[in-house]
Design goal:
By secondary structure, this protein is of the alpha+beta class. It has one domain: SH3 type barrels. The protein has three helices and eight strands. The protein is globular, with a radius of gyration of 15 Å.
Length: about 150
């Protein structure tokens, strides 16, 4: 699997995301590989970056402040499916890069596996800014959770 050289904020990774409800039920591994957006990368905590990622889901949020919808044009540009998708603004996973939960964006034969990337690309700046604002508002309300992986 090919890793990006510099996994910065806004990068959309393929990641085995562990939801808070799954973690609270005793699971320690995500049950589904899904897109997840790098929200923050910290390089001041050790020799490798620590990334905070927000999950992408097809399920609409219970309330509008809980997620940011990805416009269809952005999904097409990234190569994601055509279903409506939402980036959660209420929970994050934190992991040391690169981490065992990264996944290739598509299945590959053994001969091509090393060349398949684990990322689709970056969100547009404006969409990423909206996500950061939504996460910060939820954090201030006490409605944002973090799961350390």
């Amino acid at each position: 699997m090919r890793l990006p050289e510099n996994p910065g904020p806004g990068l959309v990774l393929c990641y085995a995301y562990l939801w808070k409800r799954e973690f609270e039920a005793g699971l320690r591994e995500g049950r589904k590989d899904r897109p997840a957006v790098v929200v923050l990368g910290r390089r001041d905590l050790g020799p490798t970056p620590v990334l905070y990622v927000a999950p992408v889901s097809h399920s609409p949020p219970a309330a509008s402040h809980e997620a940011v919808e990805i416009p269809a044009i952005v999904k097409r540009h990234l190569g994601l499916d055509a279903q409506a998708s939402f980036i959660s603004a209420t929970e994050l996973n934190v992991f040391v890069w690169p981490g065992p939960d990264l996944r290739p964006i598509r299945r590959a034969s053994a001969t091509e596996a090393a060349s398949v990337p684990c990322h689709w690309g970056y969100l547009p700046r404006g969409l990423f800014h909206s996500l950061k604002q939504a996460i910060e508002q939820n954090r201030q309300r006490g409605a944002a959770g973090v799961i350390n992986r």
